[in-house]
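Deliverable D5.2: sample structural annotation.
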Amino acid sequence: MAKRIVHYLMLASVLLGVPLLLCIACGREDLLEGVKNFPPRTEDWGQRPELLWNFRRPFNWWAFAGLAAFTATCLWPFAKRVWRFARTRGAAFGLPSSVPWRGRFPWWGWLGLAILFAGWALSWNYRFGWFPAFPQRVQVQISYAPVWAGFILFVNALCVKRCGHSPMTDHPWAYAATFPASSLFWWFFEYLNRYVWNWYYLGISQLGAFEYVVYATVCFASVLPAVCAVAALLRTFPVFDDCVFQGMAEIDLRRPKWRLFLALLAAVGMCGIVFAPDYAYPLIWISPVAVFLLVQFLLRERSVLDTLATGDWAVFIRFALASLVCGLCWETWNYHALAKWVYSVPWVHRFQIWEMPLIGFGGYLPFGVECAAVTAWICPALVDSRK
């Protein structure tokens, strides 16, 4: 317990304290005004388009091509593995040969699917008028959480159906702990967004400060459980089994040169969002995990990425893709929602899928690795629900 408290304090001092201290030391009153506001209401940003990055830094083909090339280069080794496996094994998306039986689809999976569609209808009803609308304040508060509660139940049920296991059934108490952890986890990214202004919310003006904090905290609780469940579901497909992503590049992040690299990455990210947020904004999805890993190494704790030292990238790719799958769901259900988020991304704000610029989906990949790191910190078995 004492080590965990030290871990919390170290993370908070770096991830929360460094950007704030830089703002204070450098007199960045423009940033401090937004950072100090609590709760971090952002709806007013949309009323001042001259302050939004997609207006201040319009689309640039060079920036778009550079980010696209970087993302493609990072994904290429994994894509080759998947393609090779699909060609040689054929049934890449069937059941693993090691699974002896198909489970029954549990009743609570159907309940989850019903809750998901009911929440989806509530969320989009104000636009399509499928049934008489609730008062706007009520509709905002009851529409988001049911969608993701239903999704989490449904995906866990699919895991049970495919292989007889799921994070929720195998490790119920540890899985339950990911919900409050998820709220704290995403509140941290809301804090970082006060520096980079990459997204803001609409449709929440009727909520008071306390209501908004409660509503947002409940909504944010779904992030880690959802990504964890989808990662477990991906594990049931042969193409995402461990053996496919073994024997890849061996990177021991505990070695001095890689620790130095992580430290530089963290420093550039934490400083960049204060001094050059229009350039450093992608690092809010990468720098936090660098800090997290460095603290784990310093305290001699196990890390979810220790397997990279042996060339095993299975957990890395499963959680990265799980986050991308969840991202597609987030953006879909958000598009016509009454309470929704809107993006404001410098240089690459074009080719939108729903509200998200196309290249922005690349941010979900490192975000998934952060989800894996925090989930494994809570319970290592959750990153592999079949063990």
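Annotation notes: Residues 97-101 have pLDDT under 50 and may be disordered. The first strand starts at residue 199 and ends at 202.
The annotation will be released with the project's public dataset once the embargo ends.
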